[in-house]
Amino acid sequence: MTRKNSLGLVKVRKANRAAKHSVKRSEAKAVRFSKTPEVAFRHVTQDELQKTWYKPQEYDAFKEDCKRTAAYYRNAQGDITRLDPVKVCLRGLEQNLTRISIMSRRITITSSVNMVLHEQGMEPR
């Protein structure tokens, strides 16, 4: 069935035909939102809070581990077959291992920020 709207555009409505593999309405997955927000609160002890978040010392240890891993990579001259997989894991550091990848990432981030600023009408300085 077709109908024209006020702009002269044609609206096409397909007939309701059951597909071979259609899912019954009661079996279909759906998401529904409550009209009233439901919030659950749970008491958290200070000890639980401390165990949940990283401490500044732990962040420092992460950074040192990354630096040590990058040094292993540099000493192996980029040949990852020379690295001990038990001691060295490069996962997540791929963009920080070579000068080209570091420069490329900086350029990508800078150009992304500049594009957003340009779209918002706030030209970058």
Short description:
With 125 residues, the chain is mainly alpha-helical.
Q: Please give the count of helices.
A: 3
- Please indicate the percent range of residues in DSSP E strands (runs of 2 or more): under 5%
- Compute the average pLDDT: 78
Proportion of helical residues: 25-40%
| SSE series | EEHHH
The assigned structural class equals mainly alpha
**Distance between the terminal alpha carbons, to the nearest Å?**
56 Å
Number of strands: 2
Shape field: extended
Question: What does this protein look like?
Answer:
- This protein has 125 residues and is mostly helical.
- Among the domains are: 48-91; 95-125.
- The protein is 38% helix and 5% strand.
- The chain has 3 helices and 2 strands; from the N terminus they run ββααα.
- It has a two-stranded antiparallel ribbon.
- Strand 1 (2-4) and strand 2 (10-12) form a beta hairpin.
